[in-house]
Design brief:
Radius of gyration: 16 Å
Distance between the termini: 15 Å
CATH superfamily: Metal-dependent hydrolases
Strand order of the largest sheet: 1-2-3-4-5-6-7
CATH architecture: Alpha-Beta Barrel
Shape: globular
Order of helices and strands: EHEHEHEHEHEHHEHH
CATH class: Alpha Beta
Number of domains: 1
Amino acid sequence: MIDIVMPCNNEEEFIVIAEKLGYNAICFLYDTRGYQTKQKKFEAKKIKLYTGILADSRSINKLRNKSKNKKVFVAVRSSNNDREIMEKSKADMVFSFEESPKKDFIHQRASGLNHILCKLAKENNITIGFSLSSILNSKNKQVVLGRIMQNIKLCRKFRVKTAIASFAQKPFEMRGAHDLRSLFEILGSKNPAFLKESDII
């Protein structure tokens, strides 16, 4: 059970909370600059620590060219360039599709994910990430929850690899693994899974 978080000079606090919540490991996501300059050796007694890059559509091409000979976990927040990123198989994970600014349609939600993106994710072994932070920090939680439910159905239909995580920016936004799994089971996921060690290294 690996939670994914986005620290801002509060890594030690995240480690303490993750240990209390019973996680096996935690993955710190940094932007491209932060990944190279902020990788410090933090101490953790009970859990493993990993690092990854939070890339965007502009930086991801340069990033992949520089890291051809090194395994680097790359996560991208959903944007208008999701199809391009998935077609070129640049990311390991794309997450938070539900935060799309588009308004929902009458008979369908503008959930950011569709059958084309699902097929690309499946073909290129890209994980679709579901974020607790998207729910906690949303002003329209009912809209985000509905979109997550729709996206879970799409991922199940096309057998896309998925992962759940808090994607917390503050330690108190984290939740226990059991609570996170229970929430996404209610939202329609049959077997909510966390990121695996093999996905990172």
